[in-house]
């Protein structure tokens, strides 16, 4: 076509050095129009090529660990989308969830050193059919091809878990490992959808495994669980916005004064009901509410309903009964929680001495100083504070003194031990005795049998609640329950 040309190519010099050059030229033609020579110029572009290679490296690698990055993994998955060549392909994801917490406590460089150590240790597991990527600061992904079966993937994951456990034995870092086979069902998915499924599996490992690094393979049931969590999250948001068909309501479980034999109050228990999901219990929606911070507006709704119930009790003459309300660490540590609750009690004419808030043992992993400031502000008004589910989590009697509370609620686990147990071996009586010596009154939850009540009364337990007394009741049924109790004790009046 008698046009000029340009070409880039690599050559080897006489000294054996490799160089990249750019050749720009054109043909020299004879009278017959045939090419008889080329003329032009050749540039040494080795430096430019080195820079380009460096930019490609930066584009495909994490600059701190040197591992392939998420963008490069997505590029590979995009190129191989839809391929059905019979070759097995899978992803194994590693989620180091605790590293972010350590970064907040000890600084970025400390956390980065841990990540670099993990990157180096995990790199030793790479092979010809296995590439390692760092997809986020605390997440790694292996891409494997031509493996045997799922058992081989599990065995490989177990070896990764052993490596990480040995590496982090002194730092107490835990995490989750997820497995996703890219079969025909996943072949047409985009990279983001594939990595989302892998993340679901690794996060599920963290949620359910008791090991430092549990292993979970993705399946459709996991997807259904995530979809349900999304539906619950939407329902909670709708309930907070008071949308039709989404209701957060309370039931009330009576609490018995063991020594007096009369009802001392009720625990307010939140329930979620929607047109689509039906009744959703707290053990399912509470973690979602805390994760999304919806527990703040929903918690306010719970207090409004509980205080309205207290008002009805007062109108009927039961003005000494109390209502207990569960409060999460997120609520307690919110800067305006205590002041907001005090203002609400003033507006609704609630006697603070009739209010008891229950906080879970998770508060022991939070800010003690901030928690105590909030607790003290509430206690000064007359509100009492209780540690719920005592003995199952982070706390101990020695640590209880670090928080200024009034009451311990013994977990059902210790109450169940009273059935058919040797009284000399059950520690429930010791917990009650030590709690009294520390100045707390004690509530036992989950009492279901007369034999348990008899022993708790013998041990000097102050209050009990459980199915032996009554299941959680709707508001109307709770008011009817206390009326019946009052009728059965006419000599003591409404108290």
- Low-confidence parts, pLDDT < 50 over ≥5 residues? none
**How large is the radius of gyration?**
33 Å
Separation of the first and last Cα atoms:
108 Å
Helix content: 40-55%
Structural class designation: alpha/beta
Overall shape: it is elongated
Mean pLDDT: 88
| Tally of helical segments | 18
Query: What is the strand arrangement across the widest sheet?
Result: 10-11-13-14-15-16-17-18
The profile of the biggest β sheet is:
8 strands, mixed, barrel
The overall strand count is: 18
Strand content: 15-25%
Task: Give a concise summary.
This protein is α/β, with parallel strands linked by helices and 495 residues long.
What secondary-structure arrangement, pairings included, does this model have?
Layout: E1 5-12, E2 18-29, E3 35-44, H1 46-60, E4 68-69, H2 70-79, E5 89-95, H3 99-106, H4 108-123, E6 130-136, E7 139-145, H5 150-167, E8 175-181, H6 184-187, H7 191-208, E9 213-217, H8 220-240, E10 246-257, E11 262-274, E12 278-280, H9 282-292, H10 295-315, E13 322-327, H11 329-332, H12 337-347, E14 355-359, H13 368-381, E15 384-390, H14 397-400, E16 407-410, H15 412-416, H16 428-437, E17 441-445, H17 450-458, E18 463-465, H18 475-487
Parallel strand pairs: 4-6, 8-9, 11-13, 13-14, 14-15, 15-16, 16-17, 17-18
Antiparallel strand pairs: 1-2, 2-3, 5-7, 5-8, 6-7, 10-11, 10-18, 11-12
């Amino acid at each position: 076509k008698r046009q000029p040309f340009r070409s880039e190519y690599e050559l080897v010099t006489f000294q054996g050095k490799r160089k990249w050059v750019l050749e720009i030229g054109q043909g020299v033609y004879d009278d017959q129009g045939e090419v008889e020579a080329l003329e032009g110029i050749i540039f040494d572009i080795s430096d430019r090529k080195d820079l380009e290679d460096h930019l490609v490296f930066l584009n495909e690698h994490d600059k701190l660990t040197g591992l392939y990055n998420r963008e490069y993994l997505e590029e590979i998955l995009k190129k191989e989308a839809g391929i059905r060549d019979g070759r097995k392909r899978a992803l194994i994801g590693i989620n180091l969830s605790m590293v972010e917490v350590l970064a907040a406590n000890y600084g970025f460089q400390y956390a980065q050193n841990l990540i670099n150590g993990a990157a180096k240790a995990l790199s030793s597991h790479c092979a010809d059919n296995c590439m390692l990527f760092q997809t986020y600061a605390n997440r790694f992904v292996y891409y494997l091809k031509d493996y045997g079966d799922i058992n081989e993937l599990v065995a490989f994951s177990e070896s990764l878990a052993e490596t990480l456990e040995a590496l982090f034995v002194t730092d107490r870092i835990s995490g989750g490992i997820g497995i996703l086979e890219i079969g025909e069902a996943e072949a047409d998915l985009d990279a983001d959808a594939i990595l989302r499924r892998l993340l679901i599996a690794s996060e599920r490992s963290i949620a359910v495994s008791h090991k430092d690094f549990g292993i979970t393979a993705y399946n459709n049931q996991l997807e259904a669980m995530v979809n349900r969590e999304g539906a619950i999250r939407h329902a909670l948001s709708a309930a907070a916005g008071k949308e039709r068909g989404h209701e957060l309501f309370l039931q009330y479980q009576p609490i018995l004064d063991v020594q007096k034999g009369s009802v001392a109050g009720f625990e307010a228990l939140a329930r979620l009901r929607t047109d689509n999901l039906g009744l959703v219990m707290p053990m399912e929606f509470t973690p979602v509410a805390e994760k999304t911070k919806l527990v703040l507006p929903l918690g306010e709704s719970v207090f409004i309903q509980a205080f309205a119930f207290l008002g009805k009790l007062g109108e009927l003459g039961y003005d000494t009964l109390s209502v207990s309300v569960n409060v999460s660490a997120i609520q307690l540590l919110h800067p305006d929680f205590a002041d907001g609750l005090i203002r609400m009690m003033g507006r609704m004419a609630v006697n603070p001495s009739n209010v008891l808030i229950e906080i879970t043992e998770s508060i022991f992993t939070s800010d003690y100083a901030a928690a105590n400031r909030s607790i003290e502000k509430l206690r000064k008004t007359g509100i009492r504070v209780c540690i719920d589910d005592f003995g199952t989590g982070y706390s101990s009697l020695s640590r209880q003194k670090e928080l200024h509370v009034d009451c311990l609620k013994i977990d059902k686990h210790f109450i169940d031990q009273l059935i058919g147990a040797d009284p000399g071996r059950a520690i429930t009586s010791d917990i009650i005795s030590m709690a009294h010596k520390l100045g707390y009154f004690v509530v036992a939850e989950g009492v279901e049998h007369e034999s348990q009540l008899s022993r708790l009364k013998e041990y000097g337990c102050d209050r009990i609640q459980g199915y032996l007394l009554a299941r959680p009741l709707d508001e109307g049924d709770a008011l009817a329950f206390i009326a019946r109790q009052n009728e059965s004790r006419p000599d003591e009046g409404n108290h």
